[in-house]
Amino acid sequence: MSETGSQIFGRVLPVGAQLLSAACLTWFLRPFMARRGKSLLFLCLLYLLVGLLDERLSAVQGTLSLFVTVLLVAAAGLLGLEKKQAFLLAVLFWNTKTAGGLTLESLFFLAEQWRPIPADPVEAMLFRSAVRLVLLLLSHTALLTVMLYPLQRQMQKRRLPLRRRELCYVSLIPIAGILFGQIVSRLLFEVRDGIYLQLYERHPAFIAAVPLLALLFYAGTWLTIVFQQGMAALQEEQAASFAERQQIQAIRARIHEVEQFYTSVRELKHEMRGHLTNIKGLACRGAYASLDDYIARMDESMSGFELTLQTGNPVTDVIVNDTRRRSLDLGIRFQADFHYPEAGGFDAFDVGIILQNLLQNATEACEKVGEGERSILLAGKRKGRFFLIEVKNSFAGEVVFGQNGLPATTKKEDVPMHGIGLSNVRREAEKYMGEVEIKAENQTFRVTVLLQEKHL
């Protein structure tokens, strides 16, 4: 390779390196971006632009990672990312890139030591140096992709709750890994008294120590993510269990009210004979005004003794009738064709929790719909060893499904609140080896729960 070709290669190589690195970053962020397409091209060009700018600021260590991270966080909204999520993903990328780069530097140094460089002409040495740099670049890109894949897959399994404390906790090890890489990079090559020295020549023990520490930072990052996801899952499980206990207590309280209701009905039957005697006496005396007042007071006292829908079980009676009364207050057209199985391995409280969550979500969704278009349809029937529960309701807006197959809802988005409680419904269905099917079509949200009878 001629000297001119070497100069051209020296200009082209940084551009190729930044382009490959930008492609790796774009590929790493792609599964987490809500807005793709043009956003991917924008991200790739952004990285490439900052990478070329970084050459002019090479005196400052880590400017590329700093600039790209800052711009990525600033443009998070355009890419469909949360700012904290964008920051964490950028930190994970740079830590992985650092660990891979330090590992390959050690391996290439060992390879050169085992195979000494022959004394060839200048052109051959320039060509061999260019080939080494290209191999190093391609190897680094391949290793970076391989190392990013486990992190990408792990981050997709469960979304981390990135509050300030959690973000600091998860980012601590990768940031330490990045700083470690920056320090080693400054010490890796040094010119002293006109002599070009490498860190590994001065301290051979670092040939193994540096990549080992870099890989430990990488492994520690992965384990931190796994641990934090486990803690988040445990917190969700505890919150779900607490919510379930609260729902059961509320249902039991309502059942106690219903029992008092039936007691009052029985007492009313005993009082009816006296009421009929009083009505007959007032009619015989012609006291029709007093008779009207007496009947009005009776009608008022009996208005509370109304349990319109009979489902076949006190627990489901309470939930369905409470939903019916609330629907009437909100102007929701409520229809129910629900029949609790007379016999079988279905626990009434489990079915009650399913109904409570589904009907509560349906009611909250209907509140966002214009008046006159609000509707809830409940159906429940048994087919052999299976019990089928279905709830349909109208909704306004758009339903976005998350990675867990359930509607993803946030406070910032005006979407139906079906995400709340549906995880509890799925968990109850799993007790009966059942399934939950969720569909949203033509502004109608439908949840179908299939339960399989337990063997008693």
Q: What is the structure about, briefly put?
A:
The chain has helices at 3-29, 38-56, 63-74, 76-79, 83-114, 122-157, 164-188, 199-202, 206-285, 288-302, 314-330, 348-366, 422-431, and strands at residues 189-192, 195-198, 333-338, 375-383, 386-394, 435-441, 444-452. With 456 residues, it is of the alpha+beta class.
Characterization of this structure:
The structure is a single chain. Helix 5 packs parallel to helix 7 (164-188) and helix 9 runs antiparallel to helix 10 (288-302). The protein has helices at residues 3-29, 38-56, 63-74, 76-79, 83-114, 122-157, 164-188, 199-202, 206-285, 288-302, 314-330, 348-366, 422-431; strands at residues 189-192, 195-198, 333-338, 375-383, 386-394, 435-441, 444-452. With 456 residues, the protein is α+β, with helices and mostly antiparallel strands. The strands form two sheets. A five-stranded mixed β-sheet has the order 3-4-5-7-6. A two-stranded antiparallel sheet has the order 1-2. The chain is built from 13 helices and seven strands.
β-strand amount: 5-15%
Question: Please, how many helices?
Answer: 13
Strand order of the largest sheet: 3-4-5-7-6
Largest sheet: 5 strands, mixed
What oligomeric state do these chains adopt?
single chain
Shape: elongated
Task: Please identify the structural class as seen in this structure.
Answer: alpha+beta
Cα(first) to Cα(last) distance is 82 Å
Radius of gyration using CA atoms only: 35 Å
Can you give the mean pLDDT?
A: 77
Q: Into which percent range does the helicity of residues fall?
A: 55-70%
The beta-strand count equals: 7
The SSE order reads: HHHHHHHEEHHHHEHEEHEE
Low-confidence stretches: 56-61, 410-419
